[in-house]
Amino acid sequence: MKRVVCVFLTVGALAWGQSNPASVAARQWRQAHEREIMAEFVELLSIPNIARDKANIRRNAEAIAAMFRKRGAQAQLVVEPDANPVVFAELKTAGATRTIVLYAHYDGQPLEASEWLNPPFTPTLRDKTIEKDGQVVPLATAKFPLDPEMRLYARSASDDKAPILAMATALDAMKAAGLKTRSNIRFVFEGEEEAGSANLGRILAAHKDLFSADVWLICDGPVSQTRQQLVAFGARGVTTINLTTYGARRELHSGHYGNWAPNPAMMLARLLASMKDDSGRVRVPGFYDGIAPLSETEKRAIADAPVPDKDLMAELWLGGTEGAPGRLLDLIQQPSFNIRGMSSSRTGAGASNVIPATATASIDMRLVKGMDRVKTVERVTEYIRGQGYFVTDHEPSAGERMAHAKVASVMLHEAGYNAVRTPMELPISQEVMRTVESARGKVVRWPTMGGSVPLEKIEDTLGTRTISIPMANHDNSQHSFNENIRIQNLWDGIELMAALISM
Amino acid sequence: MKRVVCVFLTVGALAWGQSNPASVAARQWRQAHEREIMAEFVELLSIPNIARDKANIRRNAEAIAAMFRKRGAQAQLVVEPDANPVVFAELKTAGATRTIVLYAHYDGQPLEASEWLNPPFTPTLRDKTIEKDGQVVPLATAKFPLDPEMRLYARSASDDKAPILAMATALDAMKAAGLKTRSNIRFVFEGEEEAGSANLGRILAAHKDLFSADVWLICDGPVSQTRQQLVAFGARGVTTINLTTYGARRELHSGHYGNWAPNPAMMLARLLASMKDDSGRVRVPGFYDGIAPLSETEKRAIADAPVPDKDLMAELWLGGTEGAPGRLLDLIQQPSFNIRGMSSSRTGAGASNVIPATATASIDMRLVKGMDRVKTVERVTEYIRGQGYFVTDHEPSAGERMAHAKVASVMLHEAGYNAVRTPMELPISQEVMRTVESARGKVVRWPTMGGSVPLEKIEDTLGTRTISIPMANHDNSQHSFNENIRIQNLWDGIELMAALISM
User: Fold this and answer.
1) What one-character-per-residue DSSP string does A303-367 give?
2) Which residue of chain B is at minimal alpha-carbon distance from A223?
C-alpha cells in the first residue's frame, strides 16, 4: 500500500518539477554525472566531522570552501576565537535586488563508532537498508545509473552534508545549462550546529555584512515521512541538560549494602517517572506556560498535511505511541521532554553486583514558540528541588552530599536556542512555496518542524526570516548510528537546490 | 573518634589472639616473610579471573592447585563438562574424626578495565586508599614490614583470592612451627561464584566423596564495618535479571519524533519507580511472603552487634539511607531489589539527540530464608504484566512489538540460589565461634550476611551446615572498580586461617 503511494508521489513530482528550468537542468546533469557526484560526496563524508574534533573540522571547512571556489563562488572561512569556522561562499549577481542565504551545517552528531555496521567515516553504499539486509555495493563496481532506492551510509550523509553536495552539484548543472542566478546567493555552512550552535549568534553579529539577507533558507532535516517534499516555517528550539543523582561515594557491594545505601539509579528512575504523566504530558509546573497559539493558516496546513502515523508505526515496529491518540504532526507542535540517554554503573558483560555511585540521564527538551530555554531549565530544576532534592549545577562536594539525603545535579549540556516560526502568509513564504513546488511538485507545509535549527540566532541577530526546506529521507537514522541517505533523496535535493539558487 | 575505636579493637584482638597457638605461629611466620607472601599474592592476582575467560580460569586453577601441592596437600582439579574447574586440596589427618571444608572462590566479578586506576590484573600497592590520594609503592622498593594501612589494588585482592593466599601461608607457618592438623582439612576453591555458581550443585553431587564434610567454613566477604572479625551464620540468596523495555525499532531523531515515539528509557524509569515505595519497600505483590522469622538468639546477636551506620555514612558521603530509620544490620535481614546497572543509548561525549530504541536495567534481588528465587522472578514478571506490559523471556519479535503498546523482556541473567541460615546454638556453631575468638578476639555475630554465597547448593547437595568467616576489609570496593585489600586484613586473615585449619 505504502509503496503504491510513493510511486504516485514520484510521478506527481516529475510532472510539477518540469516547470522549473534549473531543476530540469539539474536532473539532466545528474543523470549524466552520477559517478562523479557520488565520488565527490564520498570524499566529503570521509572527513570526520564531530564538532569537538577541531583538526578535522578545519579540514571539512577548507574542503567545502574549495568545492565552492571551484564553482566560481568567492569562498572564505569566517573564524572567531573558540568557534568552529563558518564556511561562507557568495555568488554575486549584477543588478540583483535581493540576497538569499542557503544554510546547511557540516558538523555531525557525536557517535560511538562501535555501534556502526560500517565505520561512520567510511561511506558505504548498500543496495537496500540495513534493516532489509542491504548488501554493500562497492562504488568502483556499482552499476550506473544507481538504483535510487540504494542508501549511502555515513555520519552526515543526511544530516547535513547532503545539502552541501546538492548545492555544489546544482551550480555545476546551472553552469552547464547556461543558467544565471537572479539574486545574490550566499552559502553559509555552520560547523557546530550539532553542538548547540553556541557561537553562531556571536559570529553572525561580528560579520553582519556577510550574513545579512532577505531570507535564510535552512537546508536541514528530513522531508515528510510520506517522502513528499516538505517546507517548514519554523522549528522547535532545544536545550539539553544532564541530570545526575548521587548515592554513596563509591560503588558498593549490593549484598552487603542493599536496602541501606541509596541507589541513585532508583532515585533517577523515580525522578524521571514523576516528570511525565501517563499521556506523555510533562508535569513540571509552568512547562507549557506562554506557548504561542497556532494561527488559522497554520492549523489549516496541519489539517491538510498527510498523516503518516499508521505507516510509521509499522515501519518502526510500534504497537503504540506516547501521545496517543494525538497525531505526530500535532504532537511536534508541542514541547517535548526526552531522555536521550541514561546510564548507571554497567549493564551487559561488564555488569557486576553493585549499588551504583551515580546515575545520569541526558535530557533534551524541544521548545515551541513562546517558551524560553533558560526559564524552562529553571522550572525543571525547581521541580527537582520540590521533590526534596538538593540540586547543584556542579559536581557536589563531600560536604554537600553529607548534608542532604537526596542530592542531584542539573548541568546545562548545550544551552541551545528558542523556537521561531515564520508566518506562512508573508510574500517571501509564498514565493518560496511556489519555487519549491516548481521543482518538487505539491509540497507538505508544516508550521514547525520537530527538529531544531538555530533559527533564533539568525532571526535575532540579523532580523531575517527563516524557512526550512529539507531534502533527506525520514528513515535516515540521523543522530543515531548507521545514518544514511536514500539516493533518490540526494537526486531530488540537487533539483531542489537548483530551483532555490535560481530564485 | 573512629580511629580511636580501631586502635582499641586491634589491641583487643592481640590480647585474645595469643590464646591460639596456630595463630601465634602464623603471626611470627608472617612477620618474618612479608616480602615472600606479597610476592606470591601478586603472582596469583596477576592471572585474570573473570569466569567466562576459560583459558585464564584454567591457569588460575592450576596455579592454586600447585600452591597447595607445594604445601604437602593432595590437590586436583575437579572438572565437569561446561563448568569451570573446582580446585580441591586435602590434608588427611591420621585418626581424625571429622572433616572440615574451607571454601573460597578464585574467580572475580566482571569489570570494565577502563574504570580502574591501575589495570585490574596488575596488582598495585598504595600507601593509602585511592580516596585518600594513596601513592603507588613499588613492591621492589617497599619498606618491610609494610605499613598495615597500605592497600593492594587488584580484582579479587579481597574477593576472593585473599583467603586462598591466607590459607596457603597458614600452612607454611604451621609447618615451620611443627603444628599438626587435628581434623581432615579439605580446601575447595570454586571458579564461577561470581557468575552465579550455576554448576556448583552438579559438581558437588557428582563428587560427594570429595566434598562431604562435617561443616563447610565459607571464607568470603568482608568483616564488620568496625573492622571487627565477623562470623555470619547465613547469607542472603541472590537472583539476577535483565529488564529491557522497547521503543521504536531504531533510535529516532528526538526532535522529529519527540512526544510521539515511546521512549523506552522513560518506560523503564516508570516501571522501576513503581516497584519500590518511598521507604524502600518493594511493592511487588508477594515479594515478602514466606520469610522465616529470626530466632530469639539471632535477634539478640543483632542487638549486641555494633552499629556502624553513622561512621559508614560519613565514610561514604551519605546524607541519608534508603531504609531509614532502619539500621544496616536490620535491613540486610530483609530481601532487597537493587538496580545494579542501567543503560539506554549513550550519555557523555557520545550522547546524541535521539529517542532510544531500548533501555535496560540489570537487577539483583537478594533473598532471605523462606523466599524462593524462581517464585520471586515470577512475581516480578507478573507485576510488570500488571502494569500493562507484554513481557517476553526473549528478544521480542517485530510481530510481538507491533501487537502491544508496551513491551518488555525479563531475562534471567544468573539463576542464583536461595538463602540459608545455620542456627547459632548448634555445637559446631559454638565451636567455630570459640576458635575464631581464640585467634581474633571478640567477634561480631550476624545471623545473615548481606552478600550471597552459594550455601544452598552446599547444604542441599551434601546436607552439611555452612558458617561464613570473612577476612576482607569492608571498604574494599569489591564488585566495583579499584578493588583492594587492606594489608592488616591480609595479616589477620592468615592468623584466622591458621586457627581454622588447626580446629
Assistant:
1) HHS---HHHHHHHTT-S--TTTTS-HHHHTTS-EEEEEEEEEE--GGG--SEE-SEEEEEEEEEE
2) B256
Nearest to B63 by CA among B84, B43, B33, B83: B43
Q: Tell me the H-state helices in A371-486.
A: 373-386, 398-403, 427-440, 455-462
**What pLDDT is recorded for position B18?**
61
Mean pLDDT score, B465-474: 97
Q: Please give the DSSP secondary-structure letter assigned to residue B108.
A: B
Strand runs labelled E in B348-401: 354-355, 358-367, 390-392
Q: End-to-end CA distance of chain B, in Å?
A: 36
The arithmetic mean of pLDDT across residues B472-492, rounded, is 96
- Measure A469 CA to nearest chain B CA, in Å: 14
SS3 A376: helix
- Indicate if the pLDDT at residue A486 is higher than 70: yes
Domain spans of chain A, in order of start: 2-236+420-501, 237-291+334-417
**Packing angle between helix A21-32 and helix A34-45, nearest 10 degrees?**
90
Chain A nearest CA to B399, separation (Å): 8
Among A257, A340, A477, beta carbon nearest to B353: A340
Q: Which three cell numbers stand for residue A155?
A: 555520519
In one letter, which amino acid is B199?
A: N
ipTM: 0.91
A448: nearest CA partner in chain B: B256
Query: Would the pLDDT of B332 be above 90?
Result: yes
Query: Tell me: the pLDDT tens digits for B358-383?
Result: 999 999 999 999 999 999 999 999 99
How far away is chain B from the Cα of A326, in angstroms, using its nearest Cα? 8
pLDDT per position as a tens digit, B102-136: 999 999 999 999 999 999 999 999 999 999 999 99
- DSSP3 helix / strand / coil % (chain A, rounded to 5): 40, 20, 40
Residue in A469, A440, A437, A435 with CA at minimum distance from that of residue A453? A469
Mutate which of B49, B254, B278, B449 to disrupt the A interface (most A C-beta within 10 Å)?
B254
pLDDT tens, A289-333?
999 999 999 999 999 999 999 999 999 999 999 999 999 999 999
Q: Which of A252, A251, A262, A353 is nearest to B238 (CA)?
A: A353
Angle at which helix B427-440 crosses helix B487-501, to 10 degrees, equals 130
Beta bridge pairs of residue A86: A78
Helix ranges (H only) for A207-341 are 208-211, 254-257, 264-274, 296-304, 309-315, 328-331
Q: How close, in Å, is residue A272 to chain B by CA atoms?
A: 6
What are the DSSP calls for A322-338, one per residue? TTTTS-HHHHTTS-EEE
CATH number of A237-291+334-417: 3.30.70.360
**Interface contact flag, A361 B347, Cβ < 8 Å:** yes
A318/B263 Cβ within 8 A: no
Residue A474 has pLDDT above 50, yes or no: yes
Residue of B nearest to A335 (CA): B259
Q: Looking up cell 563531600, which residue turns up?
A: A398
Tally DSSP H helices, then E strands, for chain A.
17, 20
Is residue A261 less than 8 Å (CB to CB) from chain B? yes
List CB contacts of A375: < 8 A, sequence separation 6 or more. A286
Class in CATH terms, A2-236+420-501: alpha beta
pLDDT at B5 over 50: no
Give the pLDDT confidence score for residue A1 in this predicted structure.
35
The pLDDT tens digits of the residues spanning A92-149 come to 999 999 999 999 999 999 999 999 999 999 999 999 999 999 999 999 999 999 999 9
Residues of chain A with Cβ-Cβ distance to B107 below 8 Å are none
Q: Is A33 on the interface with B (CB under 8 A)?
A: no
Closest-CA residue to B23 (of B13, B33, B10): B13
CATH code reported for the domain at B2-111+154-236+420-501: 3.40.630.10
